[in-house]
Structure formats: C-alpha cells, structure tokens
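Checklist before submission:
- one chain only
- standard amino acids only
- sequence pasted in full

Submission:
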Amino acid sequence: MWRPCRSISFLCHAVVQASSRYAHNKNHILHISRLRYTTDRFCNQSRDRDMATSSPRVVAGRRSGLWIPLKKEFIDPTHAKDVDDCALSQRQNHGVWILSQNLLADIYVEKCRLGWMKDPVTGAWLYEHVPAADMAWDTRLQRLISEFKELLPDVLCLQEVEFDVFDKDLVPALEACGYNGIMQADPNRMAKQSTGNATFYNAAVLTPTWTRHGTRTLMTAYTVKSVVHPDNSVAVDDDGKPLTGELLVANVHLQGDPKKLDQRIAQLKSCVKHGVRRERDVLALDARQPWGMVVCGDFNEDVSKAGMMKDAMNECDLANPDAMTAAGLTDPTFPMPLGTYRLDFFLHHASKVWVSDVANFLSDEGERTQALTNKIPSAVFPSDHLPVAACVCVRPPTTKRKHIVDATPSYESAEAMWHDAPMTEEQKAAYALLMDEETRVRPKGKPTAEQISALQNTAQKKRDFLAELPADTVQFLKRYKQMAQASGRKSKKKTK
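Returned file contents:
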C-alpha cells in the first residue's frame, strides 16, 4: 500500500485529455500541471466532463482489477456495471474524496518503549514486532507524506498529529501540493495533550465556510456541488445553474480508554449536535441549500458491533451500517499482536449524503496477508492504523421553497416547551418514566454486566416507544431533550 513504485497511473490519460479543455483557465492549467505526473489519484479533479459510468464502486486502493459494486444500500442494481481499472480516469465523479488516517504519533511510541501498553503474556513492548528501521519516526513520516502526495484526496483527516509535526512537517509538505491545513485548537486539550486532529483540504477544489474545534473533534464545512443519486449528475436550480451546497466533515478521534464507552458516545453525539445546529443556520437562510455531514476518523470502538454505539448512531440519524461495512469491507483497521480491531470508520447522514465509492487499501492479497498476519507498522504500512476513504456527494434538497420558515416556536424554558409537547398526558408520563429510568441506570464508572444489560433494556424500551410516535413528535422530543440538557448545564454553572 505504501510503495510509490507500485502505484497504478489512474490520472495520466485523463489529464492529457482534460488539459485542452481547460486551456482558457489559468487555475485549471496550474492544477492539471500538478496532477500530470501524479499517480494513484482517487478522483479526477476536473468537474465538468461527461461520465462514462455512474455506478458506485469499491475502488481497489492501489491495485488494478474490477471495481466491486456496493451493496443495495448504495447502488441501484440497474446501474451496476463491470468496469476495468482504467475507468476511474475516464469517468466523471462529482463527489468529494475524503481520506482518514491515524498517524501513530511518535510520542506514544516512546511511551510504549517505557512500558506503556505491554503484552500481558510476553511482557514485550507493543511494537516489539516492528523492525527498528520501519519504526523510526522520520522514516514513517516521509512514507506517510509520500502517500498523501500520491493519493491527493480532496479532504485529508488526520489523527494523532503532534502540534510541532503539523507546523514543521505536514504544512510545508502538503501546501506544496495545494493543500491548506487546520489544526485542532481545543483549549481544554492543548494544555494536557501533545497531539490533536488536523484536516487538510485541496484549496483548488474546496472552499471552507465554517469550522469548529471541539473535544476530540475538528469540524470543517465546505462549499460543494449537489449531486443527484444515482445518476451522478450535478443538480441545478430553477435557472439551470449548478446547485451548490455545504458538506460538513467531522474529523474525530474519540476517547481511547476502553472503559469509557460512555465518553465516546457523548463525544459522537456532541459532534452531531453541533452539526445539526450548523444545518439549521444554513437552512434558515435558504432552504434550497443542499447540506450534508460525514463523520470519519478513529472511533476507538467497533461501531459495527457495539450495541450502545449503534444506538447512538441511530439516535444521531447516521447510516447504520457504516459505509465500509455496507460495502463489504470488514477487515480490521488496527491489526496488532494484542488483538485485531476495527476502529476507523466512515459515517454519514444517509438522507442527505450518498456514498459513490469507497477505497479498499487491502485489495492486494499479499499486502492484506502481511498486514493481518505480521501486523503493522511495517515497510508497507507506516502507521498502526489502516486508512479509510470514501467519495461522498451531497443530495439535492427535496423542498422547493426558496427560503425556510422556522415553524418551531421559541421557548424560554424546557418546562414551557414540555407543556406544548404534541403528546397525550399518558404519552408524556410514559416518556418521563423512560427518561428517569435512563438516568437511573446510567453508570458513573466502568459498567458491570448487569448495568450494561439494564442500559440495553432501557434503550430498547425507548426505541419501541419512539417507533409508535409520528416523526415530527420524535423531532420535537429531540429538541426538548437538547434544551433540557442545556438548561441543566447552565444551572450547574450558576451553583458553582
């Protein structure tokens, strides 16, 4: 995966054809000149060419061969076609390629050398299996940067980025390729942590419109074209002009302590909550504005298996299963001697975003066997995490209104909002009991088996209750819960 000399030249043919079309635009000429000698590009950056095919595919990340059509969650069977490995350079893809990679910060490697996370059986340090030459940070860093320069995704989401590495190494190297970078600046973490999340975006393709720095999350929104699914054609407005929208990309690295699942869930929910707020701000100005959100990164949890995490995904309206699982890519992304785990995922709002392609970085059987058997890092894979990548498109809006009218009344307090809840008194009482039970069974520390069972039973009761309510009532209850939680936090601050 990480050997530049074995890359496949996806773009060479496309760039030669496209260069004549863009001779009138200096920006495109410069951009194409940069790509002319670039191989293994995920997605053609020229945005106005005709498509040869529009089928969503699993892209062989570094090897030639057939693309595998995605499962029914993503693909219309009538559009499924077999295409050869050259088709990527011959078809137009209007989506945005996003790649997520945990770098394995050298500071954590040094902690492991000093005894952090030892093998409980042999007593060996965590990366005892890695040759010293492949474990050296300078070597791994150069391999990572070389791979980023080859792949050139539209958005690059990185985790475990040391602040000095961002400034001294990543920014100079990636700015030379046309990227701008944003480093996470959460004041609550910077005083205690040496690493954070960093997001780079291709400035020739994307324009950032909004950012938010949170606890273990870095959220960035970009202006994009809205794309019709499954035709893969650009949506147009009433005047026939391309319909632009906003894509919010949340780069996350959730709590790593295995005992703190509740914190990981809270961080995911908080991230989505702020995304929903951003969506409301955008749609308040223009309801014709397409909007979508993706959440990718290191979740430190297998979201395809963890029941409580899947409940949180459902509550946040994130597609379940995740994009990788739905595409049939279920290999571990964290294969280590102590165990192999899937920790890196790509989540999205299925009603607002559709996934056209996902990348398979273990398409070569030899490299797959090496990664899963001999473990990583290695000469091929310079981090202990495998990357995940997908191409996403923002769906056009269903409403035809030019401007949105917020029909939700504003309330001064959660009590006033509860008074107007569109439910019968019996339903209100049942919901209040469920909320009390949810608070009562939530553990403060590491949950026992009995507490986990109680949490799962309460979550099932809540799902069953909400399933019988109209959709607008469910949305009302979500807003009420958010307001009640905000009121509770304000009350705590005042008492302090």
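Reviewer check: The longest strand covers residues 244-253.
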